[in-house]
Amino acid sequence: MINAPVRSDTLDLIGNTPLVLLSGPSEAAGCEIWGKCEFANPGASVKDRAALWIIRDAEARGELQPGGTVVEGTAGNTGIGIALVANALGYKTVIVMPDNQSREKMDTLRALGAELVTVPPTKFADPNHFVHTSRRIAEDMENAVWANQFDNVANRRAHIESTAPEIWEQLEGRVDGFTCAAGTGGTISGVGMGLKAMDENVRIALTDPHGAALYSYFATGELKSEGTSVAEGIGQGRITANLEDAPIDTQFRISDEEGLEWVARLLREEGLCLGLSSGINVAGAVALGRQLVAEGRQDARVATILCDTGFRYLSTLYNAEWLASKNLPVFDWLGSS
Ligand code: PMP
């Protein structure tokens, strides 16, 4: 069957990503686990959607004038999305990023034409944090907007208006559960709100990595973190504006080891090369699927997000030395050096 779409505008390539049934995770959960292929966006991550919505919103509010600059602080993927959307619409891009993120993301941002500023990683309360640095740069520039993905709810609107209705239609109006991890929280909050608007019984679960404070927040009301994670793009310590009123029904905490196990299995068994946040999401989806099955719902359908391509992490997740330096298990096909 040929089902290949035609587009008259490159920006229409953002979104409308395929949803794929994941066989290993489905077998492990005992029910259907579906992955939304966000690596199929032009910038190879879920953040293209937020970038497009944030820039369109700034234009609609008259804040972004022709020839203007979009400034953002990002772990990388949002910057890549912004750089592509800004190029397509004639804007310039300045990206501020912590210098511990993957080399591939930095090289990609430079290759796309973004001006890249790197800063040492630090606490959010520190004025030199990448988010505050990006805000100051935007304030000091003529005809510039600060994308502010953490607290600009145009981000989660992208998922209310596109990701959630896509999943709903792709699963023909029967979704029992959805889960993913939070960086800004735009995806979990926006997809959660969008799916609940279709059916309030859809169970929305937050999947948190170690080192983040949201698992504890939704479990006990207290923002408290435990452990650490090397996952990029996820792990939040505060309630961002995008997370306010997020309809979270339950929560799971997933270790890097468990996430990496799914990254390895999805690559070796299903031919999908993904980043660690996708592996953590799939582990969360299996946990949510098992919870639903334990309640007698053997026909449950759970969806999650396959956030970005693993090609972005060749020097980290797919590098034996790097994995060993983080005391993480090395994929057996990588050898020991
Ligand atoms: N995974 C990756 C790889 C990301 O870059 C991000 C964005 N920070 C996320 C997951 C989380 O998405 P969100 O910001 O919508 O919570």
Key terms for this structure?
10 strands, binds 4'-deoxy-4'-aminopyridoxal-5'-phosphate, six-stranded mixed beta sheet, Rossmann fold, 337 residues, alpha/beta, 11 helices, 2 domains
What does this molecule look like?
About 40% of the residues lie in helices and about 15% in strands. The protein is an alpha/beta fold and about 325 residues long. The protein has 2 domains: about 10-40 and about 160-335, 3-Layer(aba) Sandwich (Rossmann fold), CATH 3.40.50; about 45-145, Rossmann fold, CATH 3.40.50.1100. The strands form 2 sheets. It has a 6-stranded mixed β-sheet with strand order 1-2-10-7-8-9, sandwiched between helices. Strands 5-4-3-6 form a 4-stranded parallel β-sheet, sandwiched between helices. Helix 7 (about 185-200) links the parallel strand 7 and strand 8. The chain is globular. The N and C termini lie far apart (about 45 Å). Bound molecules: 4'-deoxy-4'-aminopyridoxal-5'-phosphate. 4'-deoxy-4'-aminopyridoxal-5'-phosphate (PMP) binds near residues 77, 182, 232 and 234.
Helix-strand sequence: EHEHEHEHEHEHEHEHEHHEH
Q: Main β-sheet: number of strands, strand sense, barrel status?
A: 6 strands, mixed
Strand line-up in the sheet with most strands: 1-2-10-7-8-9
Look up the CATH topology of the largest domain. Answer: Rossmann fold
What is the residue-mean pLDDT, rounded to a whole number? 96
The number of domains: 2
CATH C-level name of the largest domain: Alpha Beta
Q: What overall geometry do the principal axes of the alpha carbons give?
A: globular
N- to C-terminal distance: 44 Å
| Beta content | 15-25%
Q: Work out the helicity level.
A: 25-40%
- Quaternary status of these chains? single chain
Name the structural class. alpha/beta
CATH architecture of the largest domain: 3-Layer(aba) Sandwich
Number of helices: 11
Ligand identities: 4'-deoxy-4'-aminopyridoxal-5'-phosphate
- Count of beta strands: 10
- The rounded Rg comes to 19 Å
Uncertain residue ranges: none
